[in-house]
From TrEMBL:
Transmembrane segments: none annotated. It comes from Methylomonas paludis. This is Epoxyqueuosine reductase. The active site is at 142 (proton donor). Its EC number is 1.17.99.6. Binds 2 [4Fe-4S] clusters per monomer. The gene is queG.
Amino acid sequence: MPTTDNIDFNQLAQQIKQWGLDLGFQQIGISDTNLTEAEGYLQDWLAAGFHGEMAYMAKHGLKRSRPALLEIGTRSIISARLDYLPTPQPDSGAVLTDKAAAFISRYALGRDYHKVLRRRLQKLADQISTEVGEFGYRAFVDSAPVLEKAIAAKAGLGWIGKHSNLLNRSAGSWFFLGELYTDLPLPADQAVSQHCGDCTACLDICPTQAIVGPYQVDARLCISYLTIELQGSIPEQLRPLMGNRIYGCDDCQLICPWNRFAKLSVEADFKPRYQLDSRTLLELFGWDEAEFLQKTEGSAIRRIGHQRWLRNIAVALGNGRAEPEVLQALSEKLANTDALVGEHVDWALTRLQERI
């Protein structure tokens, strides 16, 4: 760690915030490492089994809620916000109401955000190093056991809403978060107050009622979990509720009143690739594995693999219209696929044939 005698850390904190803006972040905040309250919420959430198959949420012990256990020497955390909304919100609503269209969570339409944020955080760390000399730090973007929303809330970037997403009064919730754990004794910012009030729009709109109470999400019911994290079969009782959502779900964000203040991202990397914001389910169902890998290169979508991609689309097709081309595509896939995809294709065919 650099000697602190000749460093004005209050001034440095202000410089860091300006450097962050210069690098294209929309906001930078600083927090301490005391996450005691968040630790209690996390332990209760895990004890309730709300994490489902996400074993990684529990396996690191207290490292997630005690930053200095994860990165020894951490004294303060720099939290960064980067807006990502790639298309106007009414466009998303139009896709959701079109049963032939494929809905992909807005964050995944463009380039993988992990890479974009990590590069930018590294540039910020380099700038700090230029100013103060070598210092201890580690950058995180969903890459380790980090309570990013609790940290961002402590850093004054917003408050955690009833849907468990971070909300900002001037930006809504369409943004990514990244962190720099540092060994610098930077002054912490003030947390902001909560502004959800009596609103329950996110609880009411959730297709699967995964928001089981204010600030409580049962991931096992969440469409984002079902389409991304769940490895095996999607529970049959939840399939009809998924509609045409094939990768993630944005309903709770689309309905949130605070998102009327959200701004479209200026980042070219977050613009939709391969027209993924306007593709039909049949078009995407027709991608073989090679095409899937080619068109999801550099995308967060690739992590689910081609098998789960087809699984998710099969469910969405089963929730759509019983059109001849849909029945044909499902029948052809059923004759040449593995057990997981076949199960969901068979379900979709049975569901559609009941409507004929």
